[in-house]
Design brief:
Number of helices: 6
Shape: elongated
Strand content: under 5%
Structural class: mainly alpha
Distance between the termini: 39 Å
Number of domains: 2
Number of strands: 0
Order of helices and strands: HHHHHH
Length: 100
Amino acid sequence: MPLFDEINDTLLETKLEESKDVDPFTIPLTQAEATCFARRYPLSSNDPNAYWLREGKKLGLNRNCADRITEEMAQCYLESEPEVQKLFGSDVKAAWDHWN
C-alpha cells in the first residue's frame, strides 16, 4: 500500500500545483453547486452559473455548500445577506432553519 499512497500524494500535489494559477471565479458551478448557490443567493436563481461568473468575485460570494451550518455560520449568513435579513430580521434560529 505505501506505493499506492505515494502515487496518490504525488497526484494530489500535482493537482494542487496546477490549481494555484486558476482563478476559482472563472470556473463554472457544478449542478449541485448551482442549486445550492441559487438557494443561498436568491438574486441568482434565474441563472446561478452566470451570476457566479459575473458577480462572484466582485461581491465575494461563496460557491461552496454545506449540508448543515453551525449557529455561528447562520449568524454570518444573516448578517451578510440583506434578503435573509428582510425575511427573518435578527432571528438567527430562523436563518439557520432557512439554510438547513
